[in-house]
Amino acid sequence: MKSFDLIRPATVQEAIAAWEPGASWLGGGTNLVDLMKTGALEPGKLIDLGRLAVLRDVETLPDGSMRIGALVSNADLADNPEILRRYPMVSEALLSGASGQLRNMATVAGNLMQRTRCAYFQDPYAACNRRAPGTGCDAREGENANLAVLGWSDACIATNPSDFCVPLSALDAVVEVAGPSGEREIAIGDFHLLPGDTPERETALQPGELIVALRLPAASSGFAANARYLKVRERTSFAFAIASCAAALRMEGGRIAEARFALGALAAKPWRVSEAEALLAGQAPDAALFERAANAALAGATASGDNAWKIELGRRTAARALAMAAAGTPQRMPALPASVFAAQAGEPAHV
Amino acid sequence: MSDTLARPMRFGSNSGQPLTRRDGIAKVTGAATFAGDNSPEGLLHAVFVPATIARGHVTYLDVESAERHPGVTCVLTPQNRPPLQGDPSAKPTMFSFRIEVLQDDTVRYAGQPIALVVGETLEAATEGARLLSPRYEVEPVRTSLDDNEAFGFEPAGFGLPAGAEHGDVEAGHAASAKSVDVTYETAAQYHNAMETHAVVASWDGDRLTLDMPSQALMMSCAGYANFFGIPPENVTLSSPYLGGGFGSKAFVTGPQVLAILAARMAGRPVKLMLTRQQMFGPVGHRGATRQRLRLGIDENAELTVIDHEGLAETSTFDDFVEPAANASQGLYAARALRSTHRAVRLDIGTPGPMRAPGEASGSAALECAIDELAELAGIDPLECRLRNYAETEPGTGRPYSSKALRECYSQGAARFGWADRPLEPRQVRDENGLLTGWGMGTAFFPAPMFAAEATATLRPDGTALVETSAADMGQGAWTALAQIAADSLGLPMDKLEFRAGHSSLPDGGIAGGSGHTATAGGALHAAGTDVVQQLGQIAAADPASPLHGAGNGRFVARESRIYLEGDDTRSEAFADIMARTGSAEITGSGSASRPPEDAERHAMSSHGAVFAEVKVDPELGQMRVTRLVGAFAAGRIINPRLAESQLMGGMIWGISFALHEEAKFDHRSGRIVNADFAGYHVPVNADVQGLEVITVHEDDPFVNALGIKGVGEIGVTGTVGAIGNAIRHATGRRIRRFPIRVEDLLAG
Question: Which residues of B does the annotation mark as catalytic?
Fold first, then answer.
């Protein structure tokens, strides 16, 4: 591993002042450190945020929104009673990811910032426009069965691997950032960028900007009774999604008053299509309706390689997630969160 | 001592008891020191640089930068690597591979060592390795079975498997009323023991001390000695614990030789431990296969022919051809039988034996093909197998030393509830709407023996020391072998001191081929028996002993007493004999191997039947094995807990083979793109449910003195096919490629 400087600031201001080009923020390190070990990433300076206790709070603001500090661990957030009550699919998504050990280390902001699992991004000896702009994309003609079918470009066909970001997208989360030129907010939908010609630009963060918190709007808790995350994967647990969907419905009198759904693992960002959501509004829940909405969400999907199968899988995953949401949020978190093998009949299982 | 089960003891007082691992607490508390845990005074760390191309030449290494890095003490490249006494491009013994130890600048596969960097710290050596920034002249790579021409070969034992042909194969094809002609593919798999390969090497003059996990201590000593021009007895190898081996820790490897060389050059101890990524290349793997099966049946669904062609990958510089087609020998009573092997040379590390080599891949294909036949015939898959039950070994007609496969079928089927299986596929959904399918496969693995030696020493205080260099890979040899040894001496376990895992001890043979308990156990049994006979003779010669005058008889030992065999009224306690005669220690020795004439007379194999239930999401294609029942007849079971655990481990490996494990190559660079545990999947706990093992009693008077057949590998066989068949039954789709993926079930 390349030698680097490690800075441990005591305040957010100190952290921001310590930033320089080539520096990386260090949260739980569950992704960054792995990539440093293989040589895929070589930051000259790590700014360890571990001392910034101020970034570890979860609070309900006067307007009813919830504000989650950047350093809250995935495990703590998933188990937070208010999150479970008001935004249950956020917990379900978090608990479907990684392992208990990793969730203890991984942070909220780190999850937003995690890098693609594209093998060619992770392999420092491969051509990758995202990791090394201008080198090309070895994935295009390579092992790409799990890569993007939406929003990709000739320059990059990577997917965003996050589970957490998928319900965040559906729930209109807001990212609070601080940087050299002050504080600002970024809507989650604007946070991750599609690759276009500049896949190396993965997020809307400006150089030196730091995520300090995440906010879930009060209104988004209106979906709590009908909100599910569904994640299709290659083994029952501890695997990244091959397709996922966070689906949330606000039901009124047996009809869908408002619908939100976002798809994961199909593009470089969680995929949300307002036209698809609009199809659901005012309708009675029904399998054919969900299929139409799912088809609309996948409209324009094209294979970027040996992955045409993911288009159909994405449609089916969305339709299923919507049906699960319509059936209602389970009283208790399934023992296999977000899994197709979570018992859908019988007694609810414990976490 | 640990818990015991109230069940009749079939042999002695210790065998047959489900003792927990004697090293279990040491392992779970971290007290057990594995090779890489050793850090002797003055230790240096070595890191090898893996090639990032798969074929070509290294044209440049920035040695200067690496050497300049603080803490780097040595950079070893083909330019400055001192000569080795043994030729790395030769095979010193049949059970060895050609290795890469910087003999030239040629790159033969991705992950091949192209330099070694030694440093005062692991970090310094790691950074030094990075700074070498190799440049290459790259040649086109061949990493898929279609990338090079297939070739046949003359069988030459290990690595170049013989096929077999019995009966008139063409007539068998012609006589078939129904037939299948199907091709199955299995993916390349890489051994990934929890403990990666490691060595701590120290030299003292021309004496070498190695802390190194080894499945074959004496063979390793001889192998490493060969490269350094010293006699094998100058090598001391300590391997008390292994974090798994699976076949990959039985052989001399290039990285370990380089570390030993670096230690000699530095005059200081050197440690090398492979990273997880480095496991994908220089330390063997299970080669990918493509198998064509042409099977025919007559009107009664009896096999007229099994014609099994295996195609497997090997490297460009050595031969190890997965003997997959051999799985079709010795199992079903086909009138004609042919198994053949061909190979393709690719730019990959040389494959090697990996848990159930040949049988795992071959059984996966065979058991699915048999199911395809059963479906053609319109009969139950179990019924199809019973109609083709081999009462004697197919082709040779030799009797089996024992074969309780029928009982495995019936007990496994009963436990599983197989009788309720609908014949047609895609008939069953569970309460959640998941497609549910049941499949089965026959498990089969030979019961070989190697050669081993042991000693036993009875002490005047009534305790005994028994010694053999046997290796415990984690399977529990250290416990099961001690049970055998204690029984041979008629002692309770707490009177026994058992030493193993060190090359200073008598040769314990190889922990591999499912033959370790039979072989090392046989030697221990013989050594203990030798002590008992010696002590009996001492007593027989002593007028004061109740055994006086019994010197023409045989003696047996129970509960620390010697008995005249067949006459329980004449016995005496060990302690009394030794006290009265003033005997110091009594040492006996023993060895075990199978006489060739015994091997000729009988066919010797373990058998089993595996039943699988799989659930599949009908729209999303995600699969899960929800029940797995395996019934195995493997001769005498020394320790039921550990044997069942071994069999379960094998069955879990079967899940892995069927649904998860696959090294994915980029066929342009020749690099494996998923060479870590995030990308190379094995089952997690949530993938393993409803696992049940039944061991079916088998008394085998022919296989060896103890009647042991071995349980290490058979669990993999049968299971893969059972899962593939269950997926077919659940979904109506027949997937002829392992691992089976979600996209296979979505397509079409």
Answer: 713
Name which of A82, A121, A90 is nearest A108 in CA terms. A90
Closest residue by Cα to residue B449 from B385, B512, B364, B534: B512
What is the nearest CA distance from A282 to chain B, expressed in angstroms?
A: 27
In chain A, the number of structural domains is 3
Close Cβ partners of B101 (under 8 Å, ≥ 6 residues apart): B81, B84, B88, B113, B227, B254, B257, B258, B261
Q: For residue A298, what are its two tokens?
A: 């996948």
- Give the span between the Cα atoms of A164 and A77, in whole angstroms: 11
> For residue A349, what pLDDT band results from cuts at 50, 70 and 90?
very low
Q: Which residues pair with B57 in a beta bridge?
A: B106, B137
Alpha-carbon gap: B656 to the closest alpha carbon of chain A (Å) = 10
Domain membership of residue A319 as a residue range: 221-327
First to last CA, chain A: 38
Query: CA distances (Å), B713 to each of B156, B339, B581, B629, B632, in order?
Result: 23, 21, 48, 16, 11
SS3 (DSSP) at B3? coil
Phi-psi region of A130 (alpha: psi -120 to 50; beta: other; left: phi over 0): alpha
Q: Are B23 and B250 in contact (CB under 8 A)?
A: no
Cα separation, B713 vs B512, whole angstroms? 9
User: Which mean pLDDT values do the consecutive 10-residue runs of chain B (748 residues) have?
Assistant: 39 83 94 96 98 98 98 98 94 88 98 98 96 98 98 93 96 98 98 97 98 96 96 97 95 97 98 97 97 98 98 97 96 97 98 97 98 98 98 95 98 98 97 96 96 97 96 94 96 96 96 95 98 96 95 93 94 93 92 94 97 97 98 96 97 98 98 96 96 96 95 97 98 98 88
Strand residue runs (E) in B316-434: 336-346, 428-429
Note whether A311 and A214 are same-domain residues.
Answer: no
A145 inside domain: no
Assess if residue A136 is contained within a domain. no
- pLDDT tens-digit map of A222-232: 999 999 999 99
CA distance B267 to chain A (A): 27
- How far apart CA B116 and CA B50 sit, in angstroms, is 9
Contacts of A126 in chain B (CB under 8 A): 666, 669, 671
- Between CA B321 and CA B327 the distance in angstroms is 14
b/e sequence A39-55, b meaning 16+ C-beta within 10 Å: ebbebebbbbbeebeeb
Q: Class for domain B401-447+602-746, per CATH?
A: alpha beta
Residue B686: which of A126, A237, A309 has the nearest Cβ?
A237
Q: Are residues A301 and A251 in the same domain?
A: yes
Chain B CB contacts of A313 under 8 Å are: 620-621, 742-743, 746
In this prediction, residue B583 carries a pLDDT of: 80
CB B153 within 8 A of CB B321: yes
Mutate to test the interface with B, among A137, A141, A144, A309 (most CBs of B within 10 A): A309
Residues A228 and A295 in one domain: yes
- Do B746 and A145 count as a contact with CB atoms less than 8 A apart? no
Residue A210 included in any domain: yes
Q: What values do phi and psi take at B387, rounded to 5? A: -65, -20
- Summarize pLDDT for A121-136 with one digit per residue, the tens: 999 999 999 999 999 9
Which tokens sit at B667? 């066929």
